[in-house]
Amino acid sequence: MHRPPVPRARSPTPQRPPSPPPKPKPLPYKPRRRTPAGAVLEPLTPEEMRFYRTQLGTGTRRLAKRKRSPSYEPPDNQPLVKKSRDTGLVMDHYNARPDVGIDQRRVSPIIGMRNFNNWIKSVLITRFAHPALASSAVADGGGSRNLRRGKVLELGCGKGGDLNKWSKARIKEYIAFDIAALSVDQARGRWDSLPRASRFDATFTALDCYSEPLIHGILPARLAEPFDVVSMQFCMHYAFESEAKAHCMLRNVTQWLRPGGIFLGTIPNAEQLLTRLDQMPADAPGLSFGNSVYSIKFESREPRPLYGHRYSFFLQDAVEDVPEYLVHWEHFAQLADKYKLRPLYKKEFHDVFQEFHEHPDFRPLLQKMKVVDENGETEMNDDQWEAANIYVAFAMEKY
């Protein structure tokens, strides 16, 4: 039989490669700017670097450059003061002091004195700071019932022992500095633990305010609105190690304080301490006096300089032989006048008590702050009372 032919598969027809697309016509060069003409990378200034180290944490220390607004103006040049060995001793001492908490503080062997000192500060704040805060232009704009008003600067904030006092004063803004970084962290933690309804805007910075201007620790915007009150409690005497430090301290107090603003403080009574020194017998083995609660030791009877008049101070459960310096009041008042500060008030602690312990606003506070109990009895013994009364309280006004 005849077999039909088997069809063969057709070989594929070869395809030509596609033609390349036509080249686009070149566009005219018309770039568009995405950032303002002045937005260039500039190195951080020393002041800004100090701020980023102290305010925003160690991670920002690696920053070398950032965009800076063309409107930024560097701060006025202020002379820096060389830090001394005593400055390091003071800083190390307060960094080493533990924040023991409320319960532990209540069993302090000098709890009566602590409570009394807190009452003195409350009287000082209520009597002089409250009126300045009431007239402040700084307010939160809320209703009258919840209005917070006033801006406070605290130099030497320590561990934040006065935060409750400022909360009760219903301030709007609080900026605090201290030389001891650990104390600053503990103060920030204490503010953080306040009930939310009791909190105010707060900024905490570690800085030696007797050696550097505040602008080294905080950005200018935070200082643009002036303060109504500056507070320095149990710390201003450290500035009188030298004339340069005293001037630096007063510049930091007044540069950012509004006219009519109040400067509050508590300092050792230089006149009383020198009287005690003079009463010591000529053949005394050492120039030290005190009691079971405190002691003060001078290095010599003479000379008696206006700055750097050094002594060593010990206070049970508080201060361990830290170097301190006398503040001669009349000289301090004359120096403060150069910075437009005039004295309004200056009294020893026992005189403050005598003046206000029967006052209708402050008599109930004695019991509320546990200075006395419901029977009028106190935990302060004679030694604590003597230790408390080596201090004076003062208030000044900027004119």
From TrEMBL:
GO terms for cellular component: nucleus. Coiled coil: none annotated. Keywords: Methyltransferase, mRNA capping, mRNA processing, Nucleus, RNA-binding, S-adenosyl-L-methionine, Transferase. Residues 1-83 are annotated as: Disordered. It holds the Pfam family mRNA_G-N7_MeTrfase. It comes from the Eukaryota. Its main location: nucleus. The record marks K159, K165, R190, H237, E324, Y391 as: mRNA cap binding. MRNA binds at N117, N118. CDD domains: AdoMet_MTases. One of its GO terms (molecular function) is mRNA 5'-cap (guanine-N7-)-methyltransferase activity. Residues 108-399 form the MRNA cap 0 methyltransferase domain. It catalyses: a 5'-end (5'-triphosphoguanosine)-ribonucleoside in mRNA + S-adenosyl-L-methionine = a 5'-end (N(7)-methyl 5'-triphosphoguanosine)-ribonucleoside in mRNA + S-adenosyl-L-homocysteine. Residues 14-29 have a biased composition (Pro residues). Its EC number is 2.1.1.56. S-adenosyl-L-methionine binds at K121, G156, D178, D208, Q233, Y238. Responsible for methylating the 5'-cap structure of mRNAs. Belongs to the class I-like SAM-binding methyltransferase superfamily. mRNA cap 0 methyltransferase family. This is mRNA cap guanine-N(7) methyltransferase. It comes from Russula ochroleuca.
